[in-house]
Design goal:
Blueprint lengths: L4 H4 L5 E5 L7 E2 L3 H10 L8 H20 L5 H4 L3 H12 L1 H8 L3 H20 L5 H14 L2 H15 L1 H16 L1 E2 L4 H9 L3 E6 L3 H10 L10 E3 H5 L4 H13 L4 H5 L2 H13 L7 H13 L4 H5 L2 H5 L2 H5 L2 E7 L2 H12 L5 E5 L21 E3 L2 H11 L7 E2 L7 H7 L17
Parallel strand pairs: 1-4, 1-6, 4-5, 6-7, 7-8
Antiparallel strand pairs: 2-3, 6-9
The structure holds magnesium ion.
The site of magnesium ion has 7 residues, from loops.
Length: about 425
């Protein structure tokens, strides 16, 4: 087919963002079992395979539960999920936990109890305005000091141990064996030739996500274009503020006192809005869009630079037409509908992988549906390269708000602003 000059740049001015897991990379849902089998074949941690599977599943479920109230999802933020799985396996294993780390049964139970108590908060809900939630959290931390302190050393030791390093190596090998690799590079280059600006928007740690892109041969193509929740949640200077807050929590300072400090209010507000623990929130996408508008060719750097994304001036020169491609409705589609309104951008859902059957179209009100839905990559591929045109993608003409201070006052830190992640450094 001959393309005329007018159609050869049909995606000029369009930003297309891709999720990674179950979008560009399709892990086998039970790959972890294979990994555990391999690991147990050369390390005896006192568990049968079925027990170890259950431990792994439990840490995943716990991670999702913690994330739902804004706490760190260990899967994304405490090394690899496997490190955490091993850590939990340790809880189940007298031999491992007691002999290696000297934690007695009571200490282990206390730690588990603490984790369970967090889960209970989810069940009972976290009602109230932002300030009362914050106060509740401070009280909560003061009430249960011991278990988190008990956790610190074992986590550190485990993370540094040979057992975990072996595990990570086993996992990397097993994952390679259990992932469907599709060569997306030709598609990406084609989209670029049509004028599209390509980025990655995904959850988790930068190191882990860029490693995945490396594995599927897209690292170079997305250099400086990987927008992860970790980067958004670690605005420059946040370490100092966290130290102040951590000290205050340990010494029992009341929330009201902390909030008198403007620096804490600002830093905490930014963190609330973009907190990695809340995953792909509307606020996270707002920050991503600002980062893209501020530095279209290298948005990755802008994402962790608060200054680069609080000023709306860049929006006048770089208004954005935005397309998001991902597999999970509640992570890749819904936050954008909340942020920009129905039809505010083009959302494309790929209903493949382990989450593909969740949130079927029939359960969604028409205005809450993705703009397009595809079951297979082939159809999406064809759509992106031949059907999608920039004039079909709405311009986001008003910059999404990232004014955190105002949002704190209005208690508008949707969707999951429970501020417990303030103590994540202690967890
Ligand atoms: Mg995904």
């Amino acid at each position: 087919m001959n393309e005329s000059s007018s159609t050869s740049r049909q995606l000029e001015g369009v930003v297309i963002a891709f999720d990674i897991d179950n979008t560009l990379l399709s892990p086998h849902p039970n790959a972890y079992r294979h990994t555990i089998d391999q690991y147990l074949s050369f390390h005896d941690i006192g568990l049968l395979p079925e027990e170890a599977y259950k431990a792994h599943e439990k840490i995943r479920a716990m991670g999702n539960a913690l994330e739902a109230i804004g706490l760190p999802n260990s899967i994304h933020h405490r090394g690899t999920p496997e490190t955490l799985a091993l850590y939990l396996i340790g809880y189940a294993s007298d031999k491992f936990m007691y002999e290696k780390f000297g934690l007695n049964l009571m200490e282990r139970c206390l730690s588990l109890e603490w984790l369970n108590e967090v889960s209970e908060l989810i069940r009972t809900g976290c009602e109230g305005d932002w300030h009362s939630r914050f106060t509740t959290y401070i009280e909560y931390r003061n009430r249960v000091k011991r278990p988190p302190a008990t956790l610190v050393d074992p986590v550190r030791i485990i993370a540094e141990s040979k057992l975990v390093q072996d595990w990570s190596a086993t996992y990397a090998d097993a994952e390679r064996d259990n992932v469907e690799i599709i060569d997306f590079a030709p598609l990406m280059r084609k989209l670029q030739s049509l004028g599209a600006n390509l980025v990655i928007i995904t959850e988790g740690r930068y190191a882990l996500q860029s490693e995945k892109l490396n594995r599927i041969g897209l690292a170079e193509l997305f250099k400086n274009r990987i927008l992860v929740t970790e980067s958004a949640a670690r605005p420059d200077g946040i370490e100092d503020i966290e130290r102040i807050i951590a000290n205050a929590i340990e010494t029992g300072t009341q929330a009201e006192e902390l909030l008198k400090d403007q620096r804490i209010r600002n830093a905490w507000g930014t963190k609330l809005l973009t907190d990695a623990w809340a995953g792909k929130s509307p606020a996270f996408f707002a920050r991503c869009l600002h980062a893209i508008a501020a530095r279209p060719a290298a948005p990755q750097q802008a994402l962790s630079d608060s200054e680069a994304t609080v000023n709306d001036e860049h929006w006048q020169t770089n208004p954005t037409r935005f397309v998001m491609v991902g597999d999970r409705y509640e992570k890749d589609i819904e936050p954008l509908i909340e942020l920009l309104g129905p039809g505010g951008c083009t959302t494309i859902r790929l209903t493949q992988g382990r989450y593909g059957r969740l949130h079927p179209l029939g359960e969604l009100e028409p205005h809450r549906r993705p703009t397009h839905t595809f079951e297979h990559w082939d159809a999406l591929h064809a759509f992106l390269t031949t059907k999608l045109h920039s004039h079909d993608v709405p311009v986001i003409d008003v910059a999404p708000s990232v004014i955190h201070e105002k949002l704190i006052e209005q208690n508008g830190c949707s969707p999951k602003p429970y501020p417990m992640s303030i103590g994540s450094s202690l967890f």
